[in-house]
Design goal:
This protein has no helices and 12 strands. With 203 residues, the protein is mainly β. A 9-stranded antiparallel beta sheet has the order 1-2-3-4-7-8-10-11-12, with no helix packed on it. The two termini are 20 Å apart.
Amino acid sequence: CSQDMRNHPMFPSQGYSWLFDMKIGVPHCRDGFGFLKFNFDAHWYTPLIQEYGAILHLHGFFGYITRLHSHTIPYRELFHIGGPATVRGFTYGQIGPSMIGSSLGSTKAMTATVEIRFPISYDGNFRGMIFYNGGSGWDTPDAAQLSSTLLQNNNFDFRHAIGIGLSMMSPTPIRVDWGFKLDQKRRRNESFSEVHISMSQAF
């Protein structure tokens, strides 16, 4: 179920939208995939400085997935928090369970975004943004069967970043975000920031 009360589908300046969906993976055999997945996603927009076209955007997400009986959850259905579509300033799946630097995917996830958007060009083709992103993914399936010395970040660990971004709609829709980790000093072997180039409108 969902509701969309935004005043524009692509460039909303006021209103809200929310979506709650559920997905069931019905197993076809004894050793096949079988899972139940829930997602809740919500956005809220309001004018911040009308004479400059600045918009305040709040975005929250929560996800949960569980296996049905002893069946397997597909890797692509797990949550991989970190990256341009979830928490900017981090690499794909960096804020969640990993092993030898590779994302394992989590069964629980949440993200939060506070963003200020503003037009740069008069026609609205170029838009800028200042953002705060935070989130966490935790509890990977089959953690008990994995080596405790190699498994990392399996518990809830909220991480966050701030950054700036630029989007262009034509001739080709593209978005560039530069996120800076707020808690990088207490981590080893991590870059201070990440640059994301994408052609999606995730936020």
